[in-house]
Amino acid sequence: MKNMDTQLLGNISENILGLFPIVKKKFFTYGPLDLPLHLSPNNFQVLLLLREVRLSTVSDLSKQLNVSRPNMTPLLDKLVEHGLADRQSCDSDRRVVNVAITQEGDAFCEQVFHTFSNKIQERLVYLPEEDLLHLSETLNELKHILLKIDNAAT
Question: Which CATH number fits domain 12-127: 1.10.10.10, 3.30.70.600, 3.40.50.1000, 2.40.128.20?
Answer without folding.
Answer: 1.10.10.10
